[in-house]
Task: structure prediction
Amino acid sequence: MRITFLGTGDAVGTPKIGCTCPACQDAKNGGRSRRYRPCYLFSDGTANVLVETGPDLRSQLLEHDITQFDAIVWSHYHRDHTGGFGDFWRVRNNMPVYGEKTVLDYVLGEYSFMGHERHDQELHKPFTIGELEFTLFKVTHPPIEIATGMRVRHHGKTAIFTGDTNLDIPAESLALMKDADLLIADAIVPPHIHIPKHMNAADAMKLAEQVHAKQTVLVHLSHMFPPHDEAIKTYPLGYDGTVIDL
Ligand SMILES: [Zn+2]
Ligand SMILES: [Zn+2]
Ligand SMILES: [Zn+2]
Result:
């Protein structure tokens, strides 16, 4: 499978409006600190699945010349992960959408004007889109009750996307995350900062070790990291446009 990282930023995006910090300046100068809100393209070579549709969706699809979308999977209902869904208005009708029931209830309630084909999914129960096998699992992202991560498998390879979570992940979910070829992990801030609903970079690396991930890419990154080229020396930060073939 091919995974294209279309948005490695947090809810604010980098540059943050009105900010002049080193990361935001690097972003404005065209550096890799420039990050759109969350969106990832998973492809088996035939089916294209968007995981998350952040508010920058239209720009992401145009810049990467992505014209085929077969389904959307949402991890949770926060707007930085869903706010671009309306960009499919008069572009792609009746999009198949996948997620846990309360997640779909919320997002489709907000976008009631969008036609869609709804596919409610239970946690820990695999489902397939094209040849990609997805399994949603519960993570911990207070105060919302249901936030999920997902395991994606194709031809014997496994990618894990944590979604938004702190390090307090249920044991049943940790079991599903074991020995992945790729771990895509929420790491919103550097290690000296603690935010109750997210992992910081040290938490994410601890998780990677705990589940024996073969490769780890940190995402959902805020402007609080040093500029990308400096921060990458310490942590395996993703950047918009990262492509990984498994
Ligand atoms: Zn900034
Ligand atoms: Zn969130
Ligand atoms: Zn988020």
